[in-house]
Amino acid sequence: MMTTIMPEAILMAAEKMSAGGKHPLTAMFGRDETANGVGYVIYCYFEIPENKTVDGFKVVFNPNGSLEYDSITHIIPAAAWYEREIKDMFGLVPKGHPDLRSLVLHETFPEDFYPLRKNVKVNAKVRGERQFKVRTAKGEGLFEVPVGPIHAGIIEPGHFRFSQAGEAMLQLDAKLFYTHRGIEKAVEGKTPYEALPIVERICGACSVSNTWSFCQAVEKAVNVKVPRRAEIIRTLLMELERITNHVGDIGNIPAGVGFNPAISLGGRLKEKLMRLCEAVAGNRFLRGMIIPGGVSMDITPELCDRIHQVMDEVADGVEDMATMFREQENFQNRIQTTGIVRNQTAMDLAMVGVGARASGYSHDSRCDFSYGVYDELDFKPYTKTMGDVAARLLVRIGELSASFEMVDKLIELLNSCGEQELSVAMEYNEGSGWGISESARGSNFQYVALDGDGRIDRLFVRSASYANWPALPIAVQGDIIPDFPLINKSFELCYACIDR
Amino acid sequence: MEYIVTSIGLSLVQGFVLLLIAPLVAGIINKVKARLQKRQGASIFQEYFDICKWWKKATILTPYTGVIFVLAPVVYFMTSFMAATMVPGFLTGQFSMGDAFIFVYILALGRFFMTLSSMDAATSFGGMGGSREIYISVLVEPAVMLAILINSIRYHSTTLSAMVIDYNEAFFTVSAVLACVAFFLVMLAENSRLPVDNPDTHLELTMIHECMTLEYSGKLLSLIHLGSYLKIVVFLALFGALYVPVEIPLALKVLLGAVLIGIVETLNNKMRLFKVRVYLGAAIVLLLLAIIAE
C-alpha cells in the first residue's frame, strides 16, 4: 500500500524514495479523486530494481485549499516534464520549477482549463489563447532555425527551434504534443475490454508493449494470474515487435547520412518481418493478440516454423548490415562521438531503453522486473558506454542477436508447454495496478485504476519516448546542425507515444 | 567572319544537344543507383517528365522576395548553357571559342546568383544553404583552377579546345592519372553529389544545394534543375575530353562517367560538413603533385 503524504512533505519523501539516485523515477502523474472525497492526488512511482517492483507515495491536495507544492525537479531532474504535465492537466502548481511553460496544452487551449479533472466532459469543446514561448538564445551573430511542425518526410508533427552560432547548435527547444489525443481522458468510464483497442493504437511501434503493460495493470488490479502458455506467447510477440523495430531503426539511422545500400537493406528486412507479423496476428502491428487475462490466439507449430525461417533470413541480413557499418569508414566517422549523452545525464533524466543502455546505464525492464517468461531466458542487458550514435546503433545490433536467441528458446518453451487455456475469465471490480514492459524504445509504464463497476477511472501511460525526449536537446549540444537528423534518428523517439 | 559565324553556330547547336541529353544522363545516374540498391528505380526518362511537370505548375513567389529571386534561376540556367557551348570535343572540337578562365568564372557567376537568391527569401534554410555553398565553392575554385593549369602547362594554351588531351602523348602518365582522379573528386563536390552533398535527401538541415532551391516552384524550379543536370553533363564532358587519357568516343565517356557517379554515390555516405575541406584538400594536393609531375 502506498503511503499518503501532505504536499509539504513531498521533497523529503522524494529524496528518501530515490535513495540518492539509486531508484530512478518511473512516473509522476495526477488523479482526480474528489468524487471519493479525497481530493486531487499526485502519484509518484520509483523503480526499486532490487525488489523487482515499483514503489512510491501519493500526495493529496484539498481541492478547496492551496494547489501548490514544492517542485522536486531540482533534486530529481527527471520530474521536470511530469510536473509540467500535471500542471496542465490538473492545475497543481510546482513551486520553484525551472520551466513552468505549459507542456501539453498549446495556444489553442484556454487558461484555467484542466482536462483531466472530472468536472470536464470528455467531449468538451474549448478554444483559447494561451501564450507559448519557444526558448531562444540572443546575442551578436546568433540566429534561429525553426524546423517543423510539418516536416519534409512522412513523420509526425513537432517543432524544433535551434539557436545557432554558425553551424554549431547552442540550444534546442522542442515543442511537442501537437496532436494530443486525450486518450487518457477518452478511456475513462470504459471497461478495460472497451479500452483495449484504443490502448493498442497509442503507437504503431509499441503496440504489443503498450497493450501488455495495460493488461498487466488490469490483471494486477483484479488479481488474476495469466496461464503459462499465454505468458510465453506474449513474450514471443514482444520479441517479434522488438526485432521488427530494431531492424527498422538500424535501417533508418543510415538515412541521416545518405548511406543508401544500408537503407534499402533495412527496408527489405523490415518488410519481411512485418509480413511475418501479419501471418501471426492478421495485421502488421501484432494487434489484437494480447487481451486482459491472456492472449486471444494461439501460435501454431506451423507458424513457429515460419518464424524460425524468417528469423534465420533476417539474422543473415542484420549480419550483412553490421559488416557494412563496420567497414564503411566514412559512416563510422559520422556516427562516432556524435550526439553524446553522458552516463550521469542518462541517470539524472531516468532515461530508458536503448538511449540509457548506450550510455552505460544498465536499465532494462526485462531484467529489472519480473513479467512474462523473461526470468527463464537467462538474459543480461546489453550496454555500451560511449553514449554516441555509434553506441546506440551497436546496442540495437547486440540486442537483435540476443532477441534471435530468445525467439528460439521461446519457441522451444512453447512446444514443451503443451495445449492449455489461452486466457482466464476476467471479473472486474474496484482496484488499481501498474504494468511495465520493455519495448524496442524502452520501458513502457502504465497505471490503471478501476472504479466499483469495473470501469476505468484513471489510465496513465508513461511511454519510453516520454522519458527519453528530454535527453535529445542535451545530446545535440556541441554538435553541428547537419548532424541533427542523424542524432534524432539514433534515439528514434516517438511522437504518438507522447501525444496520447 | 565566316569562321566566327560557323563556330558560334556550332557552339549553340552543341549547347542545345547537351541540354537535350542532360535529363537523360541524370536519369541514368539515378537508375544505376537504384539498381545497385536492388530497387527497380524510376525510368531513365523520369527527369524529362519532372521538368515538364514543374514547368506546367504555377510559380509561387513569397511577398518578401526581390528581383534577384526571379533573376537567379535564369542566370544559373544561362551560365550552365554557356558552359555547355564551350565544352570542347563534341561539335566544337576544332574551334576555339571557350577559354578556360571564362568557363570557370561563368559557372562561378551562376553559383553567385544562386547564393544571393538563397538569402533573398530570408528563410533560415536558404541562408544555411547559401553559406555552405560558399564554403564549398571557396575550396572547389582553386582545385578547378589547378586542374586547368595542368593542361594549360602541358599544351601551352588556356583555350579549352586546345587543352583536349592528346592520347599519344599523355597516355597514362603520372600527371594525367593524378589529374583524372582529382578532377573526378572535384566534380562530385561542384555538382553537389555524395559524399559532399546528398541530392536525394529530404532532410533540410543537411542539405547544401537543395537548401537554396527550397523556396522555388514552377518554371523557376525547372530552370534550376535543368541547369543542374546540364552542369553535370558539362563537367562529365570536360572530364572526358580533358582528363581521361583513354581513346574512346566522348559520348561514351560521358555515359561511363554517369555510371561511375552512380556507383560512387552508392558506395559512399555523406561526410561531415567540416570534413569537406579535407576531401577537397586531398584533391588539391593530388593536383599539385600532378603539376609537379608535369
Automatic annotation (TrEMBL), chain B:
<keyword id="KW-1133">Transmembrane helix</keyword>
<feature type="transmembrane region" description="Helical">
    <location>
        <begin position="250"/>
        <end position="267"/>
    </location>
</feature>
<dbReference type="Pfam" id="PF00146">
    <property type="entry name" value="NADHdh"/>
</dbReference>
<dbReference type="GO" id="GO:0016829">
    <property type="term" value="F:lyase activity"/>
</dbReference>
<feature type="transmembrane region" description="Helical">
    <location>
        <begin position="61"/>
        <end position="83"/>
    </location>
</feature>
<feature type="transmembrane region" description="Helical">
    <location>
        <begin position="134"/>
        <end position="150"/>
    </location>
</feature>
<dbReference type="InterPro" id="IPR001694">
    <property type="entry name" value="NADH_UbQ_OxRdtase_su1/FPO"/>
</dbReference>
<feature type="transmembrane region" description="Helical">
    <location>
        <begin position="170"/>
        <end position="189"/>
    </location>
</feature>
<feature type="transmembrane region" description="Helical">
    <location>
        <begin position="274"/>
        <end position="293"/>
    </location>
</feature>
<feature type="transmembrane region" description="Helical">
    <location>
        <begin position="220"/>
        <end position="244"/>
    </location>
</feature>
<dbReference type="InterPro" id="IPR052561">
    <property type="entry name" value="ComplexI_Subunit1"/>
</dbReference>
<feature type="transmembrane region" description="Helical">
    <location>
        <begin position="95"/>
        <end position="114"/>
    </location>
</feature>
<keyword id="KW-0456">Lyase</keyword>
<feature type="transmembrane region" description="Helical">
    <location>
        <begin position="6"/>
        <end position="29"/>
    </location>
</feature>
<keyword id="KW-0472">Membrane</keyword>
<protein>
    <submittedName>
        <fullName>Formate hydrogenlyase subunit 4</fullName>
    </submittedName>
</protein>
<dbReference type="GO" id="GO:0005886">
    <property type="term" value="C:plasma membrane"/>
</dbReference>
<keyword id="KW-0812">Transmembrane</keyword>
